[in-house]
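Hi everyone,

Forwarding the result from last night's run.
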Amino acid sequence: MPNLIRAARPLIAALPLVALVLIGPLETAASAKVAAAAKPAPAKPAAARATGPWLYRGSDVPQDKRWTFGELPNGVRYAVRHNGVPPGQVSIRVRVDVGSLNESESERGYAHFLEHLVFRQSKYLGDGEAIPAWQRLGATFGSDTNAETTPTGTTFKIDLPDATPTSLDLSMKYLFGMVSAPTLSDANIKADLPIVLAEKRERGGAAARVQDTIREVLYAGQPLATRAPIGTDKALNGATSTSVRAFHARWYRPENTVVVLSGDKPPAEMVALVEKWFGGWTATGPHVPTPSFGDPVAPAGTPLVPGGAPIGETRVLAEPDLPRSITIATLRPWRKVDDTIVYNQGLMLDQLAQSIINRRLETRARAGASYLMAQVDQEKVSRSADVTFIAVTPLTDDWKGALADVRAVIADAMATPPTQEEIDREVAEMNVAFASSEEQSALEPGGRSADNIAQAVDIRETVASPEVVHQIFSRSIPLFKPAAVLQHTRGLFAGTVTRAVMTTLKPGEGNDAALRLALSAPVKADGRARLAAKPVSFDSLPPIGTPAQPVGQTPTGFPGIEQYDFANGVKALIWPSADEPGRVTVKVRFGAGYRAFASGDAAYIMLGNMALAGQGMATLGQDELDRISTGRKMGFNVGIDDSDFTFSADTRQADLADQLYLFAAKLAMPRWDAAPVLRARAAAELQYDGLATSPQGVLQRDLKFYQHGRDPRYRTPTPQELEAATPEGFRQVWEPILASGPIEVQVFGDIDRAKTIEALSRSFGALPARTPLSPATLAATSPLPSGGAAPFVVLHHGDANQAAALVSWPTGGGMTGVREGRQVEILANLFTNRLLDRMREKLGASYAPQVFSSWPVDLQQGGAITAMAQLQPRDVPTFFATVDEIAADLVANPASADELARVTEPLRQQITRAATGTAFFMYQLEGATADPSRFGAIRTILQDYTVTTPAQMQDLARRYLVPNTAWRLAVVPPGVNVAGVSAPAGQAPSR
């Protein structure tokens, strides 16, 4: 079964990933003997199938009956399913079994290049017509219309909204023509090559170098080591129509193709479309078998990792701006498996073993280990290896100490069985994830279910319904015993070879031999991280205060949504909805957001995002929060916006009262533990320099600062500023914030209204009255960026061929102008289409230029239309000139009706689909208890975003795309002249 569940819950920001990955074999004796290692044995599984649906042959996993499977005489396989989420949509996936591992040396990058060329022109679509064609059908480029190439496959993805018989037939026609008969001309190759090279350039830099090194070292001797999908400049520049056509003919064949449709149509209709368009496809030439991807091989005579595998290649590289990191991998051969119930029970034991180790690693990190984070994860990689990874982030240059600390925790796990209490804790975590998935199975979007089939084909396994997965897990619980988990723990670290890569800040901190020696050094098991069985109950926690029922109930005008007012000023919006079984979303909105901070608080703002939840509340510290939420669906996400703070979580009715308690207790009884702040500070310091290694990193670091007129509150703090921040200072900043300002609580989803009101009464209704926000806080705004001047030039110190540029025009904000803000979004989408056509399709200068609009409804200013692109430094002036030309044309000339329809129809479909879920209304109604006009504004949202005229767009362009109001930013390497402004050579990059 593929990966259907990730059993990780964001209760604590620093909690490591605790995931149940139902994919990938573990080719060890421990895995093969799991059924005999623990008693009682599971019920005897059904016999594996030799016939039947193609995806299930060799498996005894019960077939997911929601799917209809079939095979056409020419070899095309298909899977179709009725799925009404969202209503009217059909998701189509066409997966071709060809990726970068199918390439020869002279073809490196061809699989991905062909993905681009297929979209360029094909049998039923002229040059550059694919994107406009689907836009006219309501599909948004990049989200609804996309494709991806991996080492093992190429998948074309269409999420077709409002799938009428005509639009669905057209889409299938287009897709068939694309994969079977693309126009692979020299002219098209010449046109698409700059786009592919731009994508390669924009994904380059220090992080890409590290990833390339990791791939080359870990998979040494296998094709995967040198077959990144993006390819090489040499092979791509050498591509011709002859060579690309030969690659296409070799691999784009019916027997290599799977067509998946999941959507709001009868299965018989979807099967008929597959047969109509793909049934007549015939391949030319003989079938070419998939090449061997090889096996990991250990060099002869290498020492053993104690209790593990022989040590192979090790590599140390210096990247002065990236955090230190160590990646260790134990590799085993990948083999196709019979995806049986017993096999999946073995995977569950593997995941239990990983979860226990990861929780112990996190416990040691919190207790002061020499690493910031460490995690173990096992996965199948590109049908090339079954790998157990260990990832370590050292806190300092004492990487040997960090590695020793991690190895000691793992050594203890390999030496001594876990306690049953530890096992039961992780089983409870996994169970709640499986139960939630089963409860919410009716909500699975068609696109996700289609992706699950494509993933199953890729890994050569099956799919199972959430109900079946939960049943298999429940039946397997008697197997989850200490001896069995120990056996699987040892199996995780046994294999053919162990390899490692370490990144250091400077040469000399380590070398290949030192890393190898550290891996092979004896290690003493460290059992201090074993978790003590100390259950914590909500019943033992202090009350928030005296429970208080609502004093007022206000109809909102929306069926089912009601507002409840409490005497302490808290206001709540409640919407019970049976349309989303098992799903409850809670959001608490309070305070004044960035307006509440002083100019020197930047470090504490960042640390608040990272550490506020982890500090706990009342008598609960971080470890107690973990324990009290075991087996519960709870979370704690913190948000800081321009005008408010938010706590949010996904939960369920059974856990809702305790979820509300956690949020209310954070406001009423905050706890100020130092450890989470110090750990967050270390993490922020480690990541800072890495933000200067690429243009996108600099934008991540500085864009909000420039957007807000260089308001220091929005500046990313330097390591020096972070080092000066203290736990005491953190409390001084955040304590008054948690105690002041109005509170709005939203509870939407599968809830009981009476029980929810009672839970609110005991939590938020019991809070003391809040300190009002001062007029000065409410009036605090950021200055607007100065327009009309030369570009701001910010330096990065990554690759010399990378740059970024943007132009931003101020617009407005506030609810009174919200319709205009929505119309500006249409204008921004018009701008995006033109910028894509010019900078990507015609010039090949940027892979994904974009224009986006912001219109803050809580503030009267701060909105903007912003055009942005990543480029080569030499193309920055071209970008500025192109943006100016497009803006001037939008001012001077109305858009055509067709151009406008290509924007408004996708927007119509986006809104229509989003409005089928409660999350859409929750977002739109934020702040409605203080500003009831939002209830009215939501009623006009579809019209506001979709009904307009070319003349109205031209009028908006005249009002907002004014040259002397725009401000510009260029992110370049040192020494580059940008539109007459030069960042002097040798100048230190901005930090």
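Confidence is low (pLDDT under 50) at residues 4-43, 984-991.

Cheers,
N.
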